[in-house]
């Protein structure tokens, strides 16, 4: 007697495909996806997270590629319960650059998707100091030309931007990267303490981050004064334009 239901679930509400995807068992995923009646987008009963999202969360690039090759898989579907994160948000949060690259090549993946807390993929990457992924999202060098740009100043439900998350967690390199973005806003305030990034750096004791923010603030002020006073050549000679860029 054969297996009656390839989509059967255990006490945790997880099907065989979910377990294989979450644990990176590529060959088993191949076998399961080849079965008649398999639900490639099946979700568990607790988090409502689909198989491709489990693979993305744990960085299983080869498994992720198998799901992306199918027409019956939605690569941008958030978990139905719990945190409502998409596969891209999971990969950005956990630092899985290879998975992120695969997802970014898809035209149906939203770079500005928001989870239950309002965080975007960029803010997840910034919060965890995942620089290579941040650079991918910001530069979009290998993305399709018709994609909208990632918003540096997107705020989550608490009014916190990607910069704020990097500052709060003391991710110095991530802060540096974001400060090189021309339109980054240093003065947005969150909804919890009415903090700016500088206030957050002071609150959480991140000295190096505070210094970076102050340097950027002084540089912006100097640049503004120089441009208004038509002293652009002096600014270039002193090397401030190079620092700004």
TrEMBL record:
A Pfam family reported for this protein in Swiss-Prot or TrEMBL: Ank
Coiled coil: none
Species, as recorded: Choiromyces venosus 120613-1
PANTHER family membership: PROTEIN VAPYRIN, ROLLING PEBBLES, ISOFORM B
Protein name: Ankyrin
Residue windows of the ANK repeats: 12-45, 117-140, 193-225
Keywords: ANK repeat, Repeat
Record's keyword annotation contains Chaperone: no
Signal peptide stretch: none
